[in-house]
Amino acid sequence: MQFTIKQIAHLLNGEVRGDGSLTVSKLAKIEQGNKGDISFLANHKYEQFIYTTKASAVIVGKDFVPKKDISASLIVVDNPYTSFTQLLEEYQKILNFSKKGIEQPVFVGEGSEIGEGIYQGAFSYIGNNSKIGKNVKIYPQAYIGDNVVIGDNTLIYAGVKIYNNSVIGNNCVIHAGAVIGSDGFGFAPQEDGSYRTIPQLGNVVIEDNVSIGANTTIDCATMGSTIIRQGVKIDNLVQIAHNVEIGKNTVIAAQNGIAGSSIIGENCVFGGQVGIVGHISIANGTKVGAQSGITKTIKKENTSISGMPAFELNDYLRSVSIFRKLPQLDKQVRDLEKRLEELIEEGLFSEA
Amino acid sequence: MQFTIKQIAHLLNGEVRGDGSLTVSKLAKIEQGNKGDISFLANHKYEQFIYTTKASAVIVGKDFVPKKDISASLIVVDNPYTSFTQLLEEYQKILNFSKKGIEQPVFVGEGSEIGEGIYQGAFSYIGNNSKIGKNVKIYPQAYIGDNVVIGDNTLIYAGVKIYNNSVIGNNCVIHAGAVIGSDGFGFAPQEDGSYRTIPQLGNVVIEDNVSIGANTTIDCATMGSTIIRQGVKIDNLVQIAHNVEIGKNTVIAAQNGIAGSSIIGENCVFGGQVGIVGHISIANGTKVGAQSGITKTIKKENTSISGMPAFELNDYLRSVSIFRKLPQLDKQVRDLEKRLEELIEEGLFSEA
Amino acid sequence: MQFTIKQIAHLLNGEVRGDGSLTVSKLAKIEQGNKGDISFLANHKYEQFIYTTKASAVIVGKDFVPKKDISASLIVVDNPYTSFTQLLEEYQKILNFSKKGIEQPVFVGEGSEIGEGIYQGAFSYIGNNSKIGKNVKIYPQAYIGDNVVIGDNTLIYAGVKIYNNSVIGNNCVIHAGAVIGSDGFGFAPQEDGSYRTIPQLGNVVIEDNVSIGANTTIDCATMGSTIIRQGVKIDNLVQIAHNVEIGKNTVIAAQNGIAGSSIIGENCVFGGQVGIVGHISIANGTKVGAQSGITKTIKKENTSISGMPAFELNDYLRSVSIFRKLPQLDKQVRDLEKRLEELIEEGLFSEA
């Protein structure tokens, strides 16, 4: 899609300096911009690049005063970063809504209902008695089982698998390869050393505005529901076990693993590769450092923790810094022992 | 599916107290039960809920004596937990066997044989010369390559990918997105810094009663077989590298990574996110704490280990507890040094 | 496929000792060989097996002098290991090129171009305006979005998902379930505690000779490109976040996670389950121990590091060895304190 610089300035309530009739079709960083690109300058650290960029247009702030000649046309706005983000979002919207209609072949089972504005990619599958909302995009090869409910405007990318009875809200995004509703990992040990499978008959409930990363897995509950509350953002390759509940607006980076029945609070932030044992709860607002292992309930809200097992961040950092000099500490102790021994042997401790 | 309480009591060899003609259609926890649900009371810790539950029926033990009125009908059995598990399993069986027949389109290559009672979901693929047993369920978009063998009653969920020459036993469950038989990660360094691919020509052998979690990956052997013995239970997002062998009835939680050619014993239990280096062996019955890293062979059977690198659990716990107070230990040592120095300087060590 | 031992000897420039007219059809380890298999003996540690192997043929070196009778025919070559690898590679080539043509059904969007020698598996999908090179193999259920470019001789295994605008080079291998180009994990916190999605409009660029493991995920850049340079080898279940760049011939083992905008050098080697924070750079030739966490830029080339947070390997090993004996160190310190106190109390420090 091509737009004139003038059209974009109009969209952003900005003013053109230079040639407004040129067209742009792509967004780029200022240091990487080429002909036909539009970029922005928000941080004066990057000002040098505005004099050398090949981008056709640059969005700048009202306070920007050029020190040299600039080949790009400028669009002057109140806040260049906000304006550029607005452009990004408009662009994303156009991309999201470019896919419409039903490609062939697709499979739709009996009793399933599909709302208006659907995109159904080829080889996508919808089982029996599922309800798909309006403007949902189901990309190719996605699998939606029986009795699934999906809200409006939700994006289901290629090859996502959603097991029977899952419930997914409005405005969610589920990235390629994610698995929703696979069986929880429950096995009862038998006397002969083998394991008997504990049936997993619950489901997964995902509320509105949730984002699920590529190849992430969320298991169904044994009974009841594994619940992802509204606004939760989950990155790629994360494991959410059965009966977990994640509080609203919590952010979970890639490769976290949350074991069964743990309850995560609201507005928590988890770094990458964190592990959380089962059957504990994590208070609202907890911040967890990457690769930490949480082994017990966190009751106090808004703390930062780290380590395996995780404890208070500042204490952890102090322990870690001494871990690195453990060989020296060990030597200090041996020296002390030796010195004391020498002092005694040399008779420096006189008999009183 | 709906059953009367009387029908269920009959199935469980139980006795009805209350209205046996009511119908139930869902299993629920006692604290979450609603009309039409059946629940159970096994642990007297939960007794309070039996007086408030909205479930239509509750399974209780012979020794249960109500202290207040109960609105639910009761089914009295010898062991409520066992009876409820029996119900769960019956329910699971009905669910598993509800899918039958061949949806369209599917792809089946030349020379492949498919047993009776098959379910082949739409867009599933079977290559050439593969043999699929009886009552196998192949969910939509599953991929089964050439020369694959799959035993009876095995469930292959949506989007599972099984590479050529894999052998899978009876009564296995492979969850959505799992990859069986991808190339082992083998590359030979060349003089110019690049790597040459070492062909991976072996296969994966999975014995009977194995469960494989969603998006788990199991690589084929370089030559010979990567082997998963009978009864092994593997959770989601686990990586099993080439030429690994996992002994029977071993349980591996989510996000474990087992490097090439390692041999894992029988009846081991691995917590989540454990890593195991290549070319080692782990004795039968080893229990490994979450996030541990095992860097050398474990010879002694039935030990518990933890940490990175992993060592004996109790020792690990002691080390960890001191890790947390390292800053204090460091201070103690500095204090000792200072005190000894002061004592010497103050001349308290008299010349003998 | 069957070959006579004589044919294979000819291919390897070797000399037959024994019956050259026998046929072999499979490659096997010497200790596992059966009738119809060909094996090799390169390491005299395995010499015992040549006297008992059931393999029909064994490749041996010119310097090999049998001490007992051998039932297998021998193929005598200069370097048995090199010759066997050559056989493996020939075999792999035959396997790779056995798939040709277009299975039905497939989906190809408007404006897409596909080179000669293609294999398109059933249920594979190619969107609009994509360009696929020569001799590309696209296995069943693979998804290739719009405006994707794929070079010659690249293998795309079953169920791989490649998002719009991705660029993939020649001679690459992408294993089943890998996701290329999913949205970067970028969210801007809002005043009400919720997050606003930052549009991810960049792409992924994968250069020539790259290998990507099963179920690995590589996110697209926010703007610009996430870049995987030529010759990079990435194992299974690895997470590569937005705007990351990985230098040529770097090797990354399973379950690594590399956070956003980090720049990895050339010829690095990462053990399994390593985590790397965002916005740092790692010097060329860095070697990283399994399960390490890299929290800051590594400037010096060709160092080995380990630990969380990672530091120089030898220092790490020393710290780890003392970590294991922390309880003892703690006791030593307490003993020293006690002893000094006793000495003082006992008046052994005499008044000078």
Features:
alpha/beta; 352 residues; UDP N-Acetylglucosamine Acyltransferase, domain 1; ten-stranded parallel β-sheet; 40 strands; Udp-n-acetylmuramoylalanyl-d-glutamate--2,6- Diaminopimelate Ligase, Chain: A, domain 1; 5 helices; homotrimer
Task: Describe the overall structure.
The structure is a homotrimer of 352-residue chains. By secondary structure, chain A is α/β, with parallel strands linked by helices. Among the domains of chain A are: 3-97, MurE/MurF, N-terminal domain (Udp-n-acetylmuramoylalanyl-d-glutamate--2,6- Diaminopimelate Ligase, Chain: A, domain 1); 160-309, Hexapeptide repeat proteins (UDP N-Acetylglucosamine Acyltransferase, domain 1, 3 Solenoid), CATH 2.160.10.10. The first copy, chain A, is built from five helices and 40 strands. A twelve-stranded mixed beta sheet of chain A has the order 8-11-14-17-20-25-28-31-34-37-39-40, covered by helices on one side. In chain A, β39 (304-306) and β40 (311-312) form a beta hairpin. The first copy, chain A, is flat. The mean pLDDT of chain A is 94. Chains A, B, C: Catalyzes the N-acylation of UDP-3-O-acylglucosamine using 3-hydroxyacyl-ACP as the acyl donor. Is involved in the biosynthesis of lipid A, a phosphorylated glycolipid that anchors the lipopolysaccharide to the outer membrane of the cell. Chains A, B, C: It comes from Emticicia soli.
